[in-house]
Specification:
Pfam families: Lectin_C. About 50% of the residues lie in helices and about 15% in strands. It is α+β, with helices and mostly antiparallel strands. It has two domains: about 80 residues; about 120 residues, Roll (Mannose-Binding Protein A, Chain A), CATH 3.10.100. The structure holds calcium ion (CA) (2 copies).
Length: about 250
C-alpha cells in the first residue's frame, strides 16, 4: 500500500510539471498575440527584446503620436479657416443678393407708381407724348385764367420745343377747330417772345404775316396755335376767351 501511494505521488508531480510547462507555453503564445498598446511593450517583449529596444519603440510611438496630433491640429486649423472663408463668402453673396433684390423691388415699385399715375391721368383726360402729359380744355378762358387752371392741375401752358411736339399738339387740338392758347407771350416786352418757364423762343411756327401785334386793332401779346396745316401760330389778345393746352412732365 505504501509503494503504491509513492507511485501515485510521483505521477502527480510529473503531471503538475507538464501542466506548468503547458501553461507557460500557452501564456507566451497568448502574450505574443496580444496587441501592444501604442506606447508600451508587454512584459514578455520587454524580457525578450530588452529594455533599450522597448524604450526605443516607446519613443518612436510617442513621436508618431505627436506628429499625428500636430497633423490633426493643422487639419483642424485649416478646416476652421476654410469654414470662416465660406461664411464670409456666403455673407457677401447674401448681402449682394439682398441689395439686388431691394434694387429690383424699388424699380418695380417705381414702375407701378408711374403706371398708376399715368392711368389716373389718362382717366382725367390727359394724353402722353414722349416724357410729358397734355390736357386740352373743354371750355374757353382768358390766357391768364387758362394758365391758372393748368397750375391747379400741377402743370403749365404747353411749351413746344420741337416739330414732333408741334405735330402732336396739332393732332391733339384738331377736334377743337379753333385757336388754342399755348404758353408763349410777349407781354413783358413787345416783340420779345418768351415761354412760361422764362426760356426764350428759338424755333417758331408762326403763320404768314404773324405775329403782327393786332395791327391797327390793338395789342396782341399771347400766342395761340391752330391745327390747320400752315396756319399754326398767331398772336391774339390775352383777354380773348379761347381753349388752352396744359403740359406737365411725367414723374421720373
Ligand atoms: Ca405782342
Ligand atoms: Ca396776330
Amino acid at each position: 500500500m505504501r509503494a503504491n501511494f509513492h507511485i501515485k505521488i510521483r505521477i502527480s508531480e510529473e503531471a503538475r510539471m507538464d501542466v506548468r510547462e503547458d501553461v507557460n507555453k500557452i501564456s507566451i503564445r497568448a502574450a505574443e498575440k496580444i496587441p501592444l498598446p501604442d506606447n508600451s511593450c508587454n512584459v514578455y517583449e520587454e524580457m525578450k527584446g530588452g529594455r533599450v529596444e522597448c524604450q526605443i519603440r516607446r519613443n518612436n510611438k510617442k513621436q508618431q503620436s505627436s506628429a499625428h496630433e500636430k497633423l490633426m491640429s493643422r487639419c483642424l486649423r485649416l478646416t476652421t479657416v476654410c469654414l470662416g472663408l465660406l461664411c464670409v463668402l456666403l455673407m457677401t453673396a447674401v448681402t449682394l443678393l439682398y441689395a439686388r433684390l431691394t434694387e429690383q423691388s424699388n424699380l418695380l415699385q417705381n414702375t407701378n407708381t408711374k403706371l398708376s399715375y399715368l392711368e389716373k391721368a389718362i382717366q382725367e383726360g390727359w394724353r402722353a407724348f414722349n416724357s410729358s402729359l397734355y390736357f386740352i380744355s373743354n371750355e374757353k378762358r382768358s390766357w391768364t385764367e387758362s394758365r391758372e387752371d393748368c397750375t391747379e392741375r400741377g402743370a403749365d401752358l404747353v411749351i413746344i420745343n420741337s416739330r414732333e411736339e408741334q405735330e402732336f399738339v396739332d393732332s391733339f387740338c384738331s377736334s377743337k377747330d379753333a385757336s388754342v392758347f399755348i404758353g408763349l407771350t410777349d407781354a413783358e416786352s413787345e416783340g420779345i417772345w418768351k415761354w412760361v418757364d422764362g426760356s426764350a423762343l428759338t424755333t417758331a411756327y408762326w403763320m404768314n404775316g404773324q405775329p403782327n401785334n393786332g395791327g391797327w386793332k390793338g395789342r396782341q401779346d399771347c400766342a395761340v396755335t391752330r391745327s390747320e396745316a400752315g396756319k399754326r401760330w398767331n398772336d391774339k389778345p390775352c383777354q380773348d376767351l379761347l381753349y388752352w393746352i396744359c403740359e406737365k412732365k411725367l414723374i421720373s
